[in-house]
Structures are given as C-alpha cells and as structure tokens.
UniProtKB/TrEMBL annotation:
It comes from Mus spicilegus (Mound-building mouse). It holds the Pfam family DUF4534. This is Transmembrane protein 217. The chain crosses the membrane at residues 12-32, 56-85, 133-151. Keywords: Membrane, Transmembrane, Transmembrane helix.
Length: 189
C-alpha cells in the first residue's frame, strides 16, 4: 500500500505526533489553569447573584472538571499511541470522539469562568484555547486518515482469509497422493 503524505507527514506519523501533541498541550493547559482556576472560592455569593445550577456547578468545580478531563485526555492520548502500534482503528476513533468532548468541555469552562479573570489572563486563555483547538483539528485529519487505512487493510485481510477458507476445499473429495511421492517410492525399490 502506497503511503500518502500531507505536509510531509504520513498518516501514521501524523497520528503519533497527534498523541504527543495532546499529551504536551494538555499538560501545559493544566499547569496554566491550575494557576487561575485552582484557587476559586465557591461561596453562597454565586447563589445570591442568581446563577443557574449548571453555571454554578461549572464555576465552582471548574478546576476539578479541567483536571478530570485532562487526565482522561492524557490516558486517551497514550491509548492512541498504543492503538497506532497495535493497529486498532477503534482506539483511534475513540480518541477523535474524546478530543471533541474535551475541547467542548474546555470551551464551556472557559466561557463560564471568563468574567473572573483579568483582561490579560483572559486574552491568554482564549489564545491558548483557540491555538490548541485549531491544532487538534489539524492533527485529527491524520488520525481519521490512519484509522481509515487500518480499517481498509483489516477489511481486505478478512476478505483474503475468507477466500482462502473457501478455496481449501469442500471436504467431500478425498485427498490424492502426490505423483512425486509415488515416483520416489517406485524408484527406491
């Protein structure tokens, strides 16, 4: 199978780099958010301001949500790297689904906690999210392409195996001995 490349990378190499990028970007995101969300004070003041329950939950538990999704993202990224090695296309597609969930959750936390940040920090957080989400979209192209290649190769492998089973015989004909064996036995006497 001919390997196509895009931006000088094959689908497999781009998928590996996607996993490495996710681990590094998630770690950096977690460090940055720890500084700004980790010391959130959740008191009854938010309830008095008339916030709805969902928004109150996201604001009060923002760092815990970011921490949980970041840990799951790092695990999913490691599983992506293993899936590339083991040729498991389901692992690649589950990574794609998780990254979409992760970025959506990050956007929600970012939007709901935006008013509690200083203007400079707010700009840095938005720049970080836009950069990370854009690069995730770029790398997901490689992941989906590699998953498609793995799926097609496994599909072709199953078809070849299926044809081999059919061609091995129906089982109702007795096996004939090779003429070479008869020839060797005949001349050895």
């Amino acid at each position: 199978m001919k390997h196509h490349s895009w931006c000088g990378l094959t689908a497999r190499m781009g998928t590996v780099l996607s996993g490495v990028f996710s681990i590094m970007a998630t770690h950096m995101h977690l460090i940055f958010e720890r500084k700004h969300l980790g010391n959130g004070n959740c008191t009854e003041n938010f309830q008095a301001q008339g916030l709805n329950i969902l928004r109150y939950f996201f604001i009060c538990w923002s760092f815990q949500i970011v921490l949980f999704t970041s840990i799951i993202t790092m695990i999913a990224s490691c599983f992506l790297l293993y899936s590339v090695y083991a040729q498991i296309y389901e692992g690649l597609m589950s990574y794609v689904i998780w990254i979409i969930i992760y970025e959506s959750t990050s956007l929600t936390v970012q939007t709901l906690t935006d008013e509690f940040s200083v203007a400079l920090v707010r700009a840095m957080r938005w720049f970080g999210w836009v950069s990370r989400a854009s690069l995730h979209c770029f790398w997901l192209y490689f992941v989906v392409t590699h998953a498609q290649i793995i799926y097609q190769s496994k599909k072709q492998g199953n078809i070849l195996t299926y044809h081999r089973r059919i061609s091995l015989g129906s089982g109702d004909r007795p096996r004939r001995k090779s003429k070479i064996i008869h020839f060797v036995q005949h001349h050895s006497e």
